[in-house]
Structures are given as C-alpha cells and as structure tokens.
Design brief:
CATH superfamily of the largest domain: ATP-grasp fold, B domain
Number of domains: 2
Oligomer: single chain
Order of helices and strands: HHHHEHEEEEHEHEEEEEHEEHHH
Strand order of the largest sheet: 11-10-9-8-7-12-13
Radius of gyration: 19 Å
Length: 315
C-alpha cells in the first residue's frame, strides 16, 4: 500500500497499535481472562457453556504415556487436527485430511506416518509451540470440512472469519483465505488474503493481500467481489456470546463454516491485529466510539448482533 500520512489515517478513523494496546486491550481486557483465551482447550470448554459450538474434541494428550492412546484412536480416523493448546499464529497445527495405506495425508497432500505424528505430539508436550516455551497440552479435534461455497476460494487451507467484538458488539469482520504464499494458513502477515465483510449482510466488500488491494485470489483466480457468508446473523450472535463466556471487552473471534455442522468457533484472540481495517477499507475508531457512546440496558447477544447489523452495514 502507498504511504498515507498520519493525519489522513486519523481522519478515516484508523486505529493504530499504540492506541489499541492502551485504550482498548489494557482498558477493557482483564489480564485474569488471558489464560482462558491463550489456551484452546480452556476456550473450548468455556464457550461450550454459552452455546457456542466448536469442533468435536477427540482426545486431550497431557502426558507422554497418553500418546499411545492416540495411535489407537487414529486407527479409525481418516481426518482430524492436532493442535497445541497454547500455540499461536497457527504454529504446531497439523491437519490430516485422509489416509493412504498406513500413512496419513496432510492438507498439503504430503504423507506422514503415525510415528511422525507421535513425535509431533511429544514436541507439543515439550512446549515447542507454546507462547512462552512452557510445557503444553495437545488437542486432537474432528476435522473441519469447510463449506464448499467458501472452500473453493481458498488455497488448500480452511478459510475462516475473524470478527472483532467490542463490549459484546461485533464491530468489524473479514474472511481470511489461505494462499500458496501463506503455506495454506489463513495468516495475513504470511500472505493470506483478507476480504472485508459487510456487517449487515455478510457479503464481501473488497480484498487485500500484503495490505495491497486485489480483486482475484492469487492462486485460485476466483473473483472476490461477490462472496456471501451463510448463517451470517448466527455467526455474529456466536461471536457476541463469547463476551459473556470470557469477559473480554476487546477481542478477535475466529469462526469457520463447516459443511455439515455450520458455524464453529476455532479460537479467540485477546490481542487481535489491525489488518482487518485494510481489508474493510475503513477504520475501527468510528465503530468503537459508537459503542462507547451507547446508553444501553443489558442487551442479549442476539440484540447486540442485530444492532451491529443495523448500525455498521455499508450496503
């Protein structure tokens, strides 16, 4: 993206990192809630009590001796995901999409033996992927099969939807599409595509890669202008429910649309990035200010989702 002056960024309402950290993360996120969102297992258990669906939990590996049970469980599985509970940025996640004889097939098409998967579990327990290098826990989850309507836009990886939630109100959203550059991961810093989504309708607005505007996916070649997210209001309500589940006033909620189960929560982030503004072509500040200025009774998650749809739609 071409250089833009700080004055112009301020005029279009762009939230910068310093202000995000001081005025929103530090002010609205109680540090006692961080372990809840920095640990995928704790997140899964917490949101489940608030009717927020997540991928089915197949096994939790806490100790080295439990890895032998993984081999027994995996014997009957053709698809699953292994995740470090305290990993970040997609590190340490291995997605298995099929079988080839005794080997498992990764999302990239590479073959991997059960012995290699067991070593991966050992590395997770040792804390190789955890935020502070501390001992970790491995989660084995059911495979997410992305809705075909969305999967066709993404290169190998599962597309996900990031929703910024402020004081329980969804205020901005984007679709993240994996690319060859991002190695099949929905990580914008690694080269994934960010597609801004209209909060009122769940339709695509515009798209960026490496913060530069694009109109076609660089690998699939598909146009990114007429994407429609199904079950949109339901997804906004799920994101809103995560406020009650965690108490976090400012967070990123990452969801997927499963072909069989519909919307599922992948994870929560207490320090969501700011690239979502580039994908939407507008800043977060006007929406943050609108929520802070509300004089409101206690709204339900559904009412907050409907408020966001009515207030922040750009169609």
């Amino acid at each position: 993206m071409d250089w833009i002056s700080p004055r112009r960024l301020n005029r279009i309402g762009m939230l910068n990192m310093n202000r995000r950290n001081v005025d929103y993360i530090a002010r609205y996120n109680d540090r006692s809630s961080y372990p809840l969102v920095d640990n995928k297992l704790k997140t899964k258990l917490a949101v489940g009590e608030y009717d927020v669906k997540t991928p089915k939990l197949l096994q939790v590996v806490r100790q080295q001796h439990e890895i032998s049970h993984f081999r027994e469980i995996a014997e009957d599985l053709s698809g699953f995901a292994i995740k470090p509970a305290k990993g970040s940025g997609g590190k340490g996640i291995t997605v298995i999409t099929g079988r080839d004889g005794d080997d498992f097939v990764k999302a990239s098409g590479a073959r991997i033996s059960v012995a290699m998967l067991e070593r991966h579990l050992t590395n997770i327990l040792a804390g190789l992927y955890s935020l502070a290098g501390t001992p970790d826990v491995a989660i084995v989850e059911d495979l997410v099969e992305s809705s075909p309507d969305l999967a066709k836009y993404s290169f190998q990886g599962v597309p996900d939807i990031r929703i910024i939630v402020f004081q329980g109100y969804p205020i901005m959203a984007m679709l993240r599409l994996a690319t060859k550059a991002s190695d099949g991961k929905a990580n914008l810093h690694q080269g994934a595509v960010g597609v801004g989504l209209d909060l009122g309708t769940g339709r695509s607005l515009n798209a960026v890669q490496f913060n530069r505007p694009i109109t076609l996916h660089p690998d699939t070649g598909l146009a990114l202008e007429n994407i429609q997210i199904e079950s949109w209001e339901n997804m906004l309500e799920m994101a809103s429910r995560c406020y009650e589940a965690t108490g976090l006033g400012y967070m990123g909620v990452d969801l997927v649309v499963d072909a069989h189960q519909g919307p599922l929560l992948l994870e929560l982030n207490a320090r969501p990035g700011l690239a979502i503004q580039m994908a939407n072509g507008c800043g977060l500040m006007p929406r943050l200010n609108a929520i802070e200025g509300l004089k409101r009774p206690h709204f339900s998650p559904r009412e907050r989702a409907q408020f966001a749809m009515n207030s922040f739609s750009r169609m």
